């Protein structure tokens, strides 16, 4: 099957080219000189971009006491309707369980229900010799991204800096990349809560201070430099941490992401009567103008959502006395391209190239799938977004399931004229073409087919 996308402005690395794009049998075949085709799509007035990736989401899983509002079906539908053709999400080793068993459960939930391709990051929680040997097998098979936390001891997720160093030294040379939630647990534990009013969501940034993020980032950057392991700092929220990462890149293989909430929301949202609905970790911060300037200057390698949608009744199920009863997390999946576009919105061409880099090329490279995803190059998957920047203005919607809207004041004019997954049109004018035929596939092998360590 030959498909030609005609009359668009095609993102090719750091430039836009006025050309047609040819897809053959699900893969990119050529830019320009396309000739006749079985299917032709018009991209007049549009940018033609590689399919987007959300590098950081939580779906169809239990977080603490609550089950998330999005399933693989609902999340990936929201994703493709907003140009996200690859969803990256997490599998966490449960108490007494293994990563392989957790992965088997996640794959079963996604099988036959996903409208986007799916890639899983693995979160180990035990670190014995046998655990590390098992991780070596998984990394070799394509599970190259491991998530670690420098906080959350009560939840059983915490990994000390000593554990991080062991993993960096052993698994880094094997091809692993380490995604790290950077908040220093000791600095958080040292906060004097006696003077805080825990009935107010505005106390949250004081309980998880900026210094905790900055210190953890410093420690992780030093470990990456000392070991040579590739590290990626998730959901950077502070100006100080962003500047530290920018400086550390000269001595370490270090990348980072920020999230839509840290670009357009500030801690003033926590002072609202319903401010608990905006609780997330790291918290919303101040000094957002300086933070956005860093984003505009390219300090962040990618924008990802940390999409973690709770039902309104779960967000609101607290007695008003202690905000620690409220589940932390915001929806963001459906807002990702719309908020990212606003970083450079005074220059549409720059915004289009920014989407291609920060939502496609950079996350594909860090996820270890740049040989398949992230660019419109011959041989890569035909994941394509035909983006009209001048559609009718409408509200941004972070999710299509019941969950508090994280961005109630934000609007967008982006319209997704066409979205193609591996060469097949799946979305037209922002709507799913065939809801009864989810075509998403896993990007990694079934762990049950892999040898034991």
UniProtKB/TrEMBL annotation:
Cofactors: Zn(2+)
Domain Amidohydrolase-related: 47-391
Family matches, as Gene3D superfamilies: Metal-dependent hydrolases
InterPro entries the record matches: Amidohydro-rel (IPR006680), Metal-dep_hydrolase_composite (IPR011059), Metal_Hydrolase (IPR032466), Metallo-dep_Hydrolases_sf (IPR050378)
Superkingdom to which the source organism belongs: Bacteria
A GO CC term assigned to this protein in UniProt: cytosol
A molecular function GO annotation: hydrolase activity, acting on carbon-nitrogen (but not peptide) bonds, in cyclic amides
Residue ranges that the Swiss-Prot or TrEMBL entry lists as coiled coil: none
PANTHER family: COLLAPSIN RESPONSE MEDIATOR PROTEIN, HYDRANTOINASE/DIHYDROPYRIMIDINASE FAMILY MEMBER
Protein name (Swiss-Prot/TrEMBL): D-hydantoinase
Originating gene: hyuA
